[in-house]
Protein: Lipoprotein
Organism: Lysobacter firmicutimachus
Amino acid sequence: MLSRLAFVLLVATALPACHGAATQTAAVPTAAGTTPIPPSGLRAIGNEPGWLVEVGAGDTPAMRLILDYGERRLDVAAAARLGDAGYRGTTADGVEVELRYRRETCSDGMSERDYPASVMLQVGAQTYRGCAEFRSP
């Protein structure tokens, strides 16, 4: 289990400032003993509880979810695109995951930084809200 500080550091590493920053193409470092997060087409982040989602590029991208300050981790092997509105998939153990985004300015409320999209993440019955940025692999 990640401490809140480790989770904050993970998120800070995973979402570098996009103003003038180069697009990240390497895997994001994670806590010892965990699987690295691959480069992605979209990264979403939210607070209270802290969470992070990475969505890979392509027509059926993988989704990696780190939820509840790192206490819960889920993977969707191949998500379906919802047009230009998000992604939907199921984990290996049957948990339904849907990430919807809207292209509008969004602030995460903690970093004082604006993101180009707001997101709603549905994991089973739990709903998370946050912000996202789009990435090129």
Notes: The chain is about 10% helix and 40% strand. The longest helix spans residues 4-14. Residues 1-38 have pLDDT under 50 and may be disordered. The helical segments are 4-14.
